[in-house]
Amino acid sequence: MALNRRAFSTTVLASMALPAMRTGHAEEAFPGKPIRIVCPFAPGGGSDFIARVAANILNQRLGQPVIVDNRPGAGGTLGTEYALHTPADGYTLLLIAGSYTVNPALYKLRFDPVADMTPVIQLSKGAYVLCVNPQRVKAQNLQELLAYARQNPGKLTFASAGNGSHLHIATEYLFGMAGAKATHIPYRGTGPAVTDLVAGNVDLFIAGTEALMQHVQSGRLRALAVTTARRLAAYPQIPSVAESGLPDYDVVAWHGLIAPRGVPPQMLARLNGALDAGLKTPELAAKLEPTGVSPAGGSPGAFGALIRAEIPRYAKVVTDNDIRAQ
Prior knowledge:
Layout: H1 2-29, E1 35-39, H2 46-62, E2 66-70, H3 77-84, E3 92-97, E4 117-132, H4 142-151, E5 157-160, H5 166-178, E6 183-186, H6 190-199, E7 204-208, H7 209-217, E8 222-226, E9 252-260, H8 265-279, H9 282-288, E10 293-295, H10 300-320
Helix pairs in contact: 2-8, 5-10
């Protein structure tokens, strides 16, 4: 009888342990198929580049193919909505940029930008640079530019990558904080805006260093300031907006990965760990930093905190400057 009880107990315990063993095996085996990174922006731009950097890291460290799926449109909201409504199984990730925290104030979204996502990791951080066409703008520094804008409201024109884009908001934020006015000229992307700035059809543009600094180095544009609180190591000669008279101004250009709400913690930890390790390699830093962009990394919680902080910050800029989606 005692033997039968022991045999019964062993059988029950084994049957109870089986699901846990299977679950653990599934988690250890993750990923067991290709991963997809949805990029809600067009191929060839800075966001697409960072998505492919992340794809390469995951491919090397997790041993599975990683596909970048470009789904542009509506300021990134189309691809974002699509990705956040996929299964939360760790196999679909979404590349986001600063515009993700601007869109809630501009669009009627069919998702909650905080509650409906799982932060994975911040991939990059950098600065935008404010450049002027020297044939149109005589200001040699930001103080002179803002003084002119205050004395001549609306006379200066500034380009953006589109109405409501992060570049648009960053510029409105700058002029609003300075108590100055300039006229917004929206373009369909960074490329056309840079072309018109170099051609002298618009006065100034705040955009990524990778898009503008080649023209600064050739003498066709003049760089007045970077948008982060401190100067960039790659371009130490360019002062920051903060040190040029607006100490509270600090706009970081960043990219990161999120996933649908509810990704299992073990899978999230595997994704974050692989990416964080890859972002810390000296080889990647050497590749990115000459362009003014640095690898970021960190925990999902830290990236989630950044997103939650920036949404109300940019909502105030949108309201204060009466910016509307077009």
